[in-house]
Amino acid sequence: MQELIESALARIAAAHTIDELEAVRVEVLGRKGVLAGLSRDMGKLAPVERAERGKFINSAKQSLESAYDGRKNEFERAALAGRLNREWVDLTIPGAGPRPGALHPVTQIQWEIEDLFRSMGFTVLDGPEVETEFHNFDALNIPPDHPARDMQDTFWLEGGNLLRTHTSPVQVRGMEKLGPPLRMIAPGRVFRNEAVDASHEHTFYQLEGMMIDRDVSVAHLTYFMKTLLASIFRREDVTVRLRPGFFPFVEPGFELDIQCLICGGSGCPVCKHSGWVELLPCGLVNPHVLRMSGIDPAEWNGFAFGLGLTRLVMMRYAIDDIRWLQSGDLRFLNQFRTAVVR
Ligand code: FA5
To answer: Does position 317 have pLDDT exceeding 90, yes or no?
Structure first.
């Protein structure tokens, strides 16, 4: 009997797995196990032997149970240690958090220009993208059959409305709504029914500006344009020139060019070796346009400009194809990630 117990203790100590250990327990300590068998036989023994057998069984049971508990504990600790090793979490790793979005480069520049003009007393106005023919053309001194309508190929809608071809109709709405004196800008999306290439989109952004007051001159226009360009290109020495340009809603009308910022005017591929880059059309508001919006041209006059915002973004970042801007390509857009907070 002693040998049997010792071999059971040795097997408990040598068990490799919890299943092996359990098998020994069932065999020796279980209801039908060795110790239970020894107890059952006790009835047949003489009283003295029975007492001895009883003591033996009790002490065997104690030592087997304590060996079994100890070994089982070891297995459980090892299992827990293994799990902790596999499943550990590094609490010092920063949280993943939401990935913040970023502003499109056109929006970034638009917001910059809005802030600049607000600081000079201008109001930022919005207007509808679906416009009436009246606001997009007639009120800007472009009657039906006027050849100037062909300058801007138009997406016509049912019912005589259209997708605005420029932001100039917001000038008209601004004059109608606010009256003189007036300082306003109107950034927005415009549409033209034209073939797309590296510098032309069917959908692009313009920023309209208008100032109506007493005795407004070309000098005021030049001052505001130089201030705008110095701020956009982040330098003081932006040289501009005005060339005559025709737009029925301004008189005189100009094309404003800037001296090429890439070559400083000596000529390079960006300015097509002319030293100048055409940037924005502008002029003094045609008295006829003022009159149509209920403003007396004998008392008031003003200037207006229409900046091609999309082209300005291209110039600032030396983007060689306008189609990148609406491509939705994240490789392109990620280059303009900046933390702009408003
Ligand atoms: C106009 O749209 C006039 N409303 C601007 C104006 C306002 C003149 C106030 C005088 C007074 P124009 O058609 O030239 O003008 O367009 C203005 C600018 O929009 C251009 O200089 C150019 O930068 C941009 N632009 C024109 N067509 C496209 C196009 N298809 N894709 C991208 N940009 C364009």
So the answer is: no
